[in-house]
Write a structure and sequence with these properties.
With 107 residues, the protein is mostly helical. Helices cover 62% and strands 0% of the residues.
C-alpha cells in the first residue's frame, strides 16, 4: 500500500468518487460548468464525499453506468470505515482482488 497517494486521481477514479458522493456526470456538468470560476470547495465536494450520499443514491447512479454495482457498494462501506482519500479509495482494489484470488484457490 506504499505510494498509493503519490499520484492524483485518474479519470475513472474521479468518476468513482463522483458516484460515491451521490453525483452523476450530468449533475457535475450542470453545477460546475456554468462559465464562472470554480472554487476549490465546490470541486472538493464531489471528491471527498461531502455531498449527501447513501447506498440507495449510489445504486441509482451506478444503475446508469456500465460497471456492476458491487464494487461501489463495497467502496461505500470501505470509505465509511477508512475515510475518503486517495489512499483509502485505492486500497480497496488490492484487498478485493487478493480476497477473490484466495477464494478461487480454495474452490
Amino acid at each position: 500500500f506504499y505510494g498509493l497517494d503519490h499520484q492524483v486521481f485518474w479519470y475513472d477514479e474521479a468518476f468513482t468518487l463522483l458516484h460515491m458522493a451521490g453525483a452523476d456526470r450530468a449533475t457535475v456538468i450542470e453545477n460546475l460548468f456554468t462559465g464562472e470560476i470554480i472554487q476549490n470547495s465546490q470541486l472538493l465536494a464531489y471528491q471527498t464525499g461531502e455531498t449527501e450520499s447513501n447506498i440507495g443514491t449510489i445504486l441509482t447512479i451506478v444503475s446508469r453506468d456500465i460497471h456492476p454495482p458491487l464494487y461501489f457498494i463495497l467502496l461505500k462501506y470501505w470509505q465509511d470505515l477508512f475515510g475518503v482519500s486517495i489512499t483509502s479509495t485505492r486500497s480497496l482494489y488490492p484487498v478485493y482482488i487478493g480476497s477473490v484470488e484466495s477464494y478461487s484457490d480454495t474452490v
